[in-house]
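FIELD: query
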Amino acid sequence: MSIRYERTGSAPVPDHARQHLVRMRDGVRLATDVYLPDGADGAPLPAVLVRLPYDKNSRYVYFDKIAALFTGRGYALVVQDVRGKFRSGGQTLPFLREPLDGYDAIEWITHQPWSDGVVGMFGDSYYGFTQWAAVAAEHPALRAIVPRVTTVDFNGTTQSDPGDPSPLGRPVWLEGIEYYAHYWVDNDVYEFAPDRSVRPVIEQYEQAFAAMGNRSAWFDLLAPRYTNLLPALGRHPFDARPVPVLHCVGWFDNICLPQMRDYLELASRPGWDAVQYLWAGAIDHENYHLGLAPAAPADDHADDEAALDRMLPGYAGPALDFFDVFLKGVQPVSTLPKVTWELGHEGRRTAGSWPPPGATERTFWLTDPYRAGDALPGGTLGSAPGTDGRTARWTYDPESLVPSQVANSFAFLQSYPDESGIAAREDVLAFSTGALSEPLDLAGPARLDLHVTSTGAAFDVFAKLLDVGPDGQAHMITRGEVSVGGDPAPAEIPVSLGHTGYRVRPGHRLALLITSSDYPMFLPSSGSSDNPWTTLAPKAGTQTLHADASSRLTVTVLAAEN
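FIELD: result
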């Protein structure tokens, strides 16, 4: 079968930007746009640098519009295509050159006549990573960064290191690895739809690369066998000279968990702790907001210009306030709360730390398992553990996988699906509380501990925490997953559900779904020691949940408001 694909190259440079081809130390030149304030009188300015792989001039990153917000506050905005992407030269290979290229880009800025020698960095996702890479390079002009919806270790989000002997790991995030097959083949972007019925799964991508006549070198390092080259980056950013950081997190972002790990590690690390700040909102990776979910056409900033104009001030505003303190020095540090966070369905709050002071843990035990195989409400999330030794079973059938509920988890809130339908499947367990009589405010980490045994040599556990409304619709609050193997496999399985700020409103239920597949977002388990990318004979299995004191959900909650 021939895969059809669409190739997208560079968009035009806008009239209000001046493009430069900036020379790196090895002679490669990177395409770089500079935006300056209108009517600048020649006085030197602090600069904000953005280094990205998504075409600096594309509608997708909208820097032609963002520029006005930065230059309007008195900053020069510098936006650069990273090495090997769009108008920039060099090999198309992510991560490895970013520390050196970041250093060289900052060095170039400091020698421009409009620069006052002070530089900050800003941006999402991969262009959050390029900030961390620049921190590792320790240019003295880099004074503050604002990494949004990102993490210091992207490859660690996609799968477990095969050298890790632990029987607990991470299921392979197929969607995350597929990204490299679209964006890191050459200078352009390739859009294609894999044939999800093809087995082995790796052949879906071999078909695409054959059609394109090219392939992604980084994809080949991740699949079908993982080769970890990130140690080649050199110094870890967290071991570098501390700089002020505003970590901008989305509660519905698919990499919220690793970004919160980054924040919490630095917030507890001497030298870094004093300059760590957290901004957390009820948004996803693509900046869709819970309050507008699912996005109506008039509110979809991906397509509607007025919606984009409404979204951008809230997108850039926290960064500009942060830079006014740490780049310009025109506002005192005391104007910045250490933590600004959003309680979903309720609004923004501030705190001195995360979780907010006074938050406590609350535990719900998985009980009444004989009802867990039914549609919601299913079994019970109860206030005491079961004592009668009851169990519930769910199956894993590689020929009938639980379908992923969104086609693109980066834009989860764009569609914000009702997930009540999958709870009725025989291969899904469901548990829920009764309808709440008062608000339940989640504010901090959530985790699931399960006592599970299996007939399979390897299996995955996918768990979702849901808000079930009075109308029966169920919407995800947060999620977690773990792969289980070993001989014997551990019976007690911890599943981190990340962090959230969310109000479960009166009349709603808190619910939990448990299953063993989520395709095509995640690569199906082989059910054995076979490589799941290449297996032609994945094995079915049956998991048994023991509803005892070891099977429990723990959430972090605020005290009830009077």
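FIELD: remark
DSSP finds ten helices and 24 strands in the chain.
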